[in-house]
Amino acid sequence: MKKLLSAALFASAMFLGTTETSAQSYKTGLGLMIDVGDGGTFVGPHVKHFFTRNGAGEFDILFGNGSTAVQALYQYNAPLGGAKGLNWYVGAGPGIAFANKGGGNSFYITPAIGLDFKIHGAPLAISADWRPKFFLSDGGGNNVGRFGLGFKFTL
């Protein structure tokens, strides 16, 4: 009876473990973000970390166009049916751009919608999204022609 109970517990743990890992492709990704579009190109380090099965935080420090931008986004992620490793996501978060050579700082909100692909069998993920910026300082305004391309080493 003891062996049967041990075997049942082991089988249950294996089933639950494989169910959980199939829900998300990776836990943390570290890499490079390229933010391109109207207003110049920004490049810098990028981290995406899953706090729950569907909830992730994305953190970027981007350099370019005479300024440094720091932004954090919360994203809801879900698998795209029938495509292993491919997730869609939608999210938003705050950001601040610091002018490097005088000038003021800009505060903004960035919504994002995109795709994240974890390459099966390799510790790599690629993401592409649309990420417009809506400025809260300097009289407002927006920059809707912005796109992100992320390359991540996954853990």
What labels describe this entry?
single chain, mainly beta, eight-stranded antiparallel beta barrel, 10 strands, 14% helix
SS field, number of helical segments: 1
Count of beta strands: 10
Helix content: 10-25%
Q: What class, by secondary structure content?
A: mainly beta
Q: Supply the CATH architecture.
A: Beta Barrel
Strand order of the largest sheet: 1-2-3-4-5-6-7-10
Count of individual domains: 1
Major β-sheet annotation: 8 strands, antiparallel, barrel
Task: Report the end-to-end length measured between terminal Cα atoms.
Answer: 39 Å
Query: What gyration radius follows from the Cα positions, in whole Å?
Result: 19 Å
CATH class: Mainly Beta
SSE order in H/E notation?
Answer: HEEEEEEEEEE
Shape: elongated
Average pLDDT figure: 87
Strand content: over 45%
Low-confidence stretches: 1-23
**CATH fold field value:** Porin
Task: Please provide a written account of the structure.
The protein is mainly β. It has one domain (26-154): Porin. Helices cover 14% and strands 58% of the residues. It has one helix and ten strands, in the order H-E-E-E-E-E-E-E-E-E-E. Strands 1-2-3-4-5-6-7-10 form an eight-stranded antiparallel beta barrel. Strand 3 (55-64) and strand 4 form a beta hairpin. The longest helix has 22 residues, at 2-23.
